[in-house]
Amino acid sequence: MPEAFIVDAVRTPVGKRGGSLAAMHSADLGAHVLSALVERTGVDAGLVDDVIMGCCDTIGSQAGDVARTAWLVAGLPDHVPGVTIDRQCGSSQQAVHFAAQGVMSGTQDLVIAGGLQNMSAIPISAAMLVADQYGFTTPFAESPGWVARYGDVEVSQFSSAQMIAEKWDISRQNMEAFALASHERARRAIAEGRFDNEIAPVTLPDGTVFSTDECPRETSLEKMAGLQPLAPEGRITAAVASQICDASSAMLIASEAAVAEHGLTPRARIHHLSVRGDDPIWMLTGPIAATRHALAKSGLAVSDIDLFECNEAFASVVLAWMKELDVPHDKVNVNGGGIALGHPIGATGTRLMTTMLNELERTGGRFGLQTMCEGGGQANVTIIERL
């Protein structure tokens, strides 16, 4: 089967809610990484077959196929198309899958995959709120067919995170210790310059150059313990959840023929890609079954994987996944995760993969596995091999 290669990957620094990127138009946010990627790779932008970008809540500045708009805003060739996809939190990871599948099918040679999200400007689930304002019934739980199949029960990421904590016997204290480690790892990575190679700094309107992730905090277990849970008698607090933020990210996926023809130097190979569904009521348990499936399909074991990125939507999600698969914490999210660095929904997939690629190169690891929970009880898994 033809191979798919990652030629390069880049991201913006992650801006905290209301922070440095909050006023940036979503199309400009996406355009920034597209321009940076083309410049870094030296590829002729006119040869790109497609631009696939993940984005959720595609209203306002994110409406109207923002992937296409971002490409045009970047001043890149008109004839190159773009498409915006939504697999919830896994949107840009799925963009990588679609790009790789296009290359592996032999129908495309150069595809850009990425994602963008300005959560400061357009809050999570804003599309549902707007539709409700105009009298449209959008929540799937109001579907008679849905109720007939799953019952009239609450479906939310917060209730799922709580259910997971209870089922896997994960205490609030365990989650807060995990969250603290995320912040400490992220702050260490920033201090050591581990993200420098992957970040394309953004020059803000006032001339300030924004180049460092804003979300990691100096916190403590004592501070976390003082927060109120999101539900009465619950274990989930804001401290153990991912942060609302703004960012974009992108990578160039190429065929073997394109690598040879254009003199490109790939950094990694797509070793495996898959996506699985799980119980939508539990919603966030998808990475467990999806990772088992991916390892079985690829013939690899947990011990063969050098680095794991499991998105920190909530601490309970990652801790349950680690417990079920016996994945050691010292291999997981080694430079911090969504709790510390933020979870810019549409951009997170390629943000995580960009960081994982750079860390594999820094440490000399061979295989990296990435997964994340997604709305509807889904999970993507991608295994990349450093070259």
From TrEMBL:
<keyword id="KW-0808">Transferase</keyword>
<feature type="active site" description="Proton acceptor">
    <location>
        <position position="343"/>
    </location>
</feature>
<feature type="active site" description="Acyl-thioester intermediate">
    <location>
        <position position="89"/>
    </location>
</feature>
<dbReference type="InterPro" id="IPR020616">
    <property type="entry name" value="Thiolase_N"/>
</dbReference>
<dbReference type="Pfam" id="PF00108">
    <property type="entry name" value="Thiolase_N"/>
</dbReference>
<feature type="domain" description="Thiolase N-terminal">
    <location>
        <begin position="5"/>
        <end position="256"/>
    </location>
</feature>
<dbReference type="InterPro" id="IPR020617">
    <property type="entry name" value="Thiolase_C"/>
</dbReference>
<protein>
    <submittedName>
        <fullName>Acetyl-CoA C-acetyltransferase</fullName>
        <ecNumber>2.3.1.9</ecNumber>
    </submittedName>
</protein>
<keyword id="KW-0012">Acyltransferase</keyword>
<feature type="domain" description="Thiolase C-terminal">
    <location>
        <begin position="265"/>
        <end position="386"/>
    </location>
</feature>
<feature type="active site" description="Proton acceptor">
    <location>
        <position position="373"/>
    </location>
</feature>
<dbReference type="InterPro" id="IPR002155">
    <property type="entry name" value="Thiolase"/>
</dbReference>
<dbReference type="GO" id="GO:0003985">
    <property type="term" value="F:acetyl-CoA C-acetyltransferase activity"/>
</dbReference>
<dbReference type="InterPro" id="IPR020613">
    <property type="entry name" value="Thiolase_CS"/>
</dbReference>
<dbReference type="Pfam" id="PF02803">
    <property type="entry name" value="Thiolase_C"/>
</dbReference>
<dbReference type="InterPro" id="IPR016039">
    <property type="entry name" value="Thiolase-like"/>
</dbReference>
<comment type="similarity">
    <text>Belongs to the thiolase-like superfamily. Thiolase family.</text>
</comment>
